[in-house]
Amino acid sequence: MERRKLVLLSMMLCATGCMVLPGCQPQKKADMPPQVCTVSTDTIVYLQEGENVPSCKISLDISYLQPISETDSISPKINTTVIKHFFGPQYETARPDEVLQALTENYIENYKSDVKSLFEADLHNGMKPDDVPAWYNYEYQLNTEMKEGRKGIWNYTLTDFRYTGGAHPNTEITCLNVSQETGKILSEEDVFNVKDTANICKLIMNELIKEVNKRTGIDTITSLDGLQSMGILLDTYLYIPANFILGKEGVTFYYNRYEIAPYSAGDFRLTVNYDDIQSYLKQ
Description:
By secondary structure, the protein is of the alpha+beta class. The chain contains 7 helices and 8 strands; from the N terminus they run αββααβββαααβββα.
């Protein structure tokens, strides 16, 4: 009986150990791809001590590839390419955790330089803690996702949310498609045939109409005129955006707020199946 208890206890400890590993997704034994890992940080900074004091909330994470061996030269190259693209050449040689630390320090510095002197002046002029305007409270969120997309491609998506005292917060999504063989970022010119731009935009238009009908629940929009009556595509033509994802089932085109519609309409993520768009893609 005692031996059985020890075996069960050992099994429980092993299971627990697997669950508390650092933020890396388990490898697949069949083809052993690099692990996708994530580093993150959460910080709250107050302008001064006390209750009802304005604060800045910072929540950041960065996904990256953990090389599968010492001979894996592509994974570090991909990490470097992604970090340089999103955060600038000054971070090209930095580790993801170092990038997080530097970004956090920059956000804190920006927050204090933006509002600290104003807050102190308001307090000096008699503002009470309960009267502190909401716009004194900032928030930064940076979330990333890295996953396998179409064969031979890593999909990387960065979502940047920030509220810095304006009329409303803003969210911007940036997407990358990275070759698993070369570590190169694939651009629109690498993926889409330029001569088929009009045909690709027609496919995107069809998905946009479906999405707007779905959101409004009226199912009566069938053309550009109907979209424009909803405030969409009033100031621009539909185009192939730089933000797209070559997923496993199709190509998803991302339009951030303000790009094709007003802020109130939100962003748009429109997926065209490969069955429909394949003939317009470069091989």
